[in-house]
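Figure 6 in text form: structure in, sequence out.
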């Protein structure tokens, strides 16, 4: 491990990366740092796939970080994640443990591995009031008018669109953040699962989560003050559960649309990871269907 100071376990949803990361951390004396953009929220457990039992191996509980750190409804972004990651990373390292980054949110993973220079952009209430009066198509045009817009992918959800413009306006008047981060020497393991197995796992897991009470979880979130619109903002499970609970779609429509959306999400995750490889990251791919002891053995051999 002298050549590395961070292990990262990535892979598409339903590939078993959490279980592998936890077993690897247990073997090496490590702690997990989550790289999941929604597991930061308390009360969003079933829908985000938090499996607390996965962090227990026998009588041992592997410590995990950046899970359940915010109330649902609070705003969180890649800047805050980057800041929180490095705090956890330094804490784990200073205690002589090995940080194991695990998750499927590609932007969060790249933000720490590449050390992105990011902006902590404050809210601009005056600008927001101005933008709220404009049509969606005008907001999209404005975002695309900036020389190098930081993100043009969030043009469907109005709240994200306004936030993107807010960031661009801030960048026009302020320089980039020049924070210095620790020198990371990561080794990346990716869990590779064939398309048909991944699709089967996703559908089975969705059925299980619905039986475990995912709809009731969304109802509790709404009763706690999280609006249906905010649930839509969190995407995937909560987007379609919100529409179902609002009476906009039937149960069968919710299940079918959500199942398809998760399949598409997994495909986008793999596209992101392949992009990382093209940009120079070496990812050691391990067959997700191998027995755990074989996966661990392969990882240990690579780490030597």
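Output sequence:
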């Amino acid at each position: 491990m002298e050549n590395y100071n961070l292990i990262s376990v990535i892979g598409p949803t339903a590939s078993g990366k959490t279980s592998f990361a936890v077993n690897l951390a247990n073997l090496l004396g490590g702690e997990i740092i989550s790289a999941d953009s929604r597991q930061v929220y308390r009360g969003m457990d079933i829908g985000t796939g938090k499996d607390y039992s996965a962090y227990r191996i026998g009588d041992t509980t592997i410590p995990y970080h950046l899970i359940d750190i915010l109330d649902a409804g609070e705003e969180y972004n890649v800047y805050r994640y980057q800041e929180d990651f490095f705090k956890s990373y330094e804490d784990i390292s200073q205690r002589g443990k090995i940080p194991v980054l695990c998750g499927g949110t590609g932007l969060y993973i790249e933000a720490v591995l590449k050390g992105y220079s990011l902006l902590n952009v404050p809210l601009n209430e005056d600008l927001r009031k101005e933008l709220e009066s404009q049509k969606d198509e005008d907001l999209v045009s404005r975002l695309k008018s900036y020389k190098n817009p930081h993100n043009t992918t969030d043009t469907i959800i109005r709240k994200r669109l306004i936030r993107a413009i807010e960031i661009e306006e801030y960048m026009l008047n302020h320089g980039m953040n020049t924070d210095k981060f620790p020198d990371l020497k990561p080794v990346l393991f990716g869990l590779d699962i064939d398309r048909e197995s991944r699709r089967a796992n996703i559908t089975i897991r969705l059925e299980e989560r619905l039986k475990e009470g995912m709809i009731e979880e969304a109802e509790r979130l709404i009763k706690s003050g999280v609006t249906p619109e905010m649930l839509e903002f969190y995407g995937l499970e909560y987007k379609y559960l919100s529409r179902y609970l609002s009476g906009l779609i039937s149960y069968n429509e919710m299940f079918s649309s959500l199942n398809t959306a998760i399949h598409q999400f997994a495909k986008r995750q793999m596209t992101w990871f392949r992009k990382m490889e093209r940009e120079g990251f070496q990812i050691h791919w391990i067959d997700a269907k191998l027995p755990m002891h074989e996966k661990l053995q392969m990882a240990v051999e690579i780490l030597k």
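Caption detail: The chain has a mean pLDDT of 89.
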